[in-house]
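User: Show me a protein chain along with its predicted structure.
Assistant: Here is one chain, sequence first, then structure tokens.
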Amino acid sequence: MAHEQGVEARRPSLVRRLDPRRALDIRIFSSESDAPRARRPTDVVLLIVAVLGLLILSVPAPGPTKIDRAITGLVQNLPGLFGWFWEICYDLLIGWALFLVILALVARRRKRLFLEELFAAALAFAVAVFIGRASGTEFSSSIGAISSSTPPPVYLAIRLALATAVVVMASPHLSRPLRFAGRSVVVLGALAGIALGTTLPIGMIAGLLVGVASAAIVHLLLGSPAGRLSVEQIGAALADLGVEATGLAHAPLEPQGVALATGSTPDGRRLLVKVYGRDAWDGQLLTSAWTSLSTRGESPSFGFSRVQQVEHEAFITLLAERERAPVQPIVAAGTATKRDALVVTEITGRPFSALDPGEIDDALLRGMWDALVRLQDLGIAHRWIDGGRFVVRPDGSPALGGFARAETGAPDTAMMGDRAQLLVTTALAVGPERAVAAAMDAIGAEDLTAVLPLLQPAVLNRETRTAVREASWSLDDLMQRCVDATGVEAPKLEQLRRVTTKSVLTVVLIGFLAYMLISAIAGVGLQTIVDELMAADLAWVVAALVLTPIAQIPQAFSTMGASIQDLRFGPTLALQYAIQFIQLAVPSSAARVALEVRFFQRNGVDAGGALSIGLIDSVSGFVIQILLILVISLSGLASLNLASVRSSSTSSSSSSSSGSSTPSLLAVAIVLLLLGAVVALAVPRYRKRIKEAIPRYRAALRAQIASGAAALRVLRSPTKLLMLFAGNLTAQVMLAVVLGLCLRAFGQSASLASLILVNTLVSLFAGFMPVPGGMGVAEAAYTAGLVALGIPNAVAVSTALTFRLVTYYLPPIYGTFGMRWLREHSYL
């Protein structure tokens, strides 16, 4: 009762006494002029997306396409809008950009921002002129498009590119209302340019991407502020919530971009202030999206406002406190006058990570486990256990804080993940032996056994993983300690097949056969192929090289969607690159199975579930390929003239005759299977091995089915299904774009639907061939497909070789780095 009265006495009044003068204060800039800057991963993402978009648009550029005509007609026929409205909106692009430049010039101590805006605009101008010239737009036309608002349309929208570069460049420095105004001007200006006929939709999108890319480059070179409130602003916001604080100071940013500050109350209590600043909203949104990809178990907060995030953390903390769970108490939570959301907690002790090993006794370790178990009894998963979340009170008891990522009604995997994090956290402090002993004493052997599959790097946050790498022991050592203590068998990982001399000779032989096969189909010689390759436009080949590794990004999303477990985006993307490396020497299906099983086991999935995840991913890709073929073929978007391939093949061989025929691959396969079955049953040694193996495989199959049933739950999640199928679909489209870029390098072009049809058919066909990566077979099939589209034979061969070079033979170079990274971080 005394404790409850003390807590109530510390709570501030709900009645706010706001200063009228503060309500009239207008905030123009998000941060102080000397605020610290950082280079953020989100700018890397924006740059990659912009470059990717420009490469995709380069295939149909400069237009017009059917989509361009449809959108232009729709915008121009909008009712109730007149020419003068579009003129004003289009002129606002330049007007708002000049306003931001002048604002930075006349504002106090903002000259650096002024120079950065000019830098971004100059970079956007240079890139826009270069891309326009590469697409056939004269330099004079690009210059004239800056001031002109009349037809004919020009590719690309250089005025929009300049305005977007300045707006995006200045956004981190401006308050949220000005950011919103800038975005509105850019959107309306883009629509106005389409309505006035100054450019086509494809040109508007390209201009927008050029502006975003230019601003992202400047941010990466020079850094950008986080929109963090000053100490004085935090103090004023706390006063709005009825909290009087002194000695306020900034603390490092939280991983999700939330600003932290520390301070004290007049009576000496220490406070931790978490600020979701109004003007840091963009940073929280984009950083949350990035964290959801790079951090296991983290979800983007697209649907949560600043107030909702504060209320979420306060609610879970108060819920745990009401049920007597040892947590750091909430002092205040709410929204200040300037719409900044704050949550204030009391720091009731020293961080566990700051204690010396001699200060940590067995009672404290047992108390930490009891606190976590008590929290989980309430159905709450913390999702971010480390030495900084636990504090040790003056009486030696632990308390848990930092519930921003906590979840109520959490699944068992999240609960076991919290326990794995606590086990590693205590092992970092007192060593594996004492940590395992404390866990055994607190939760018992059975529950500790359930934690073992989650004892993997992917479960830990970045700081904990770094600490483990620097420790004298590894996670494998910790797992072995747990195995010895519980008496269970450690999970075994799949062994990977290595590159052998035999596999290298196989590659050389298949490469020779590929050349013979392609020459037979296309009727061209080696010198003709060499001449075509020497005459290729290297700019298009480089564009294909740049786009190819990016095409693995949607494939990583597909793999994440196939897994019921939460996966981090970074390691999953590295897995895709590692597959590119290993499949050069072994069949791609075998490489994918071996790597994915090992990878998923390192993420806490058993072997049966890992195989099921790989199967789900592969089947979804197969379904997407079949649907693409059906949609394109039945709709008439594209078709293949196979007669041209047959005529080309026939004309290339003078000895062919109408009466000759060859057995089908299906017939040959059936004969070989029957022959193998007869040999296996006729030879006693083989017959005995088969008889002994049947019971083992039967038991293994039952275990795989039982384990795979859990993995199939992913099909019940709309989000997982979207990632699964959208990822595979996007990957297929991007590879078709790469094929189109390779074709453009030799002066030919084809519709996107035709390229998708050829790439999808060849992918399906080569996937059934029992050779590594379909070498030889794929080159021949791509050649045949391109010839069926009407591409000349020599160009078809050169395009097929170039496409396979950039998508299959060169990716193992950077795939080696993916493989090495996964091994160094214990994902393989």
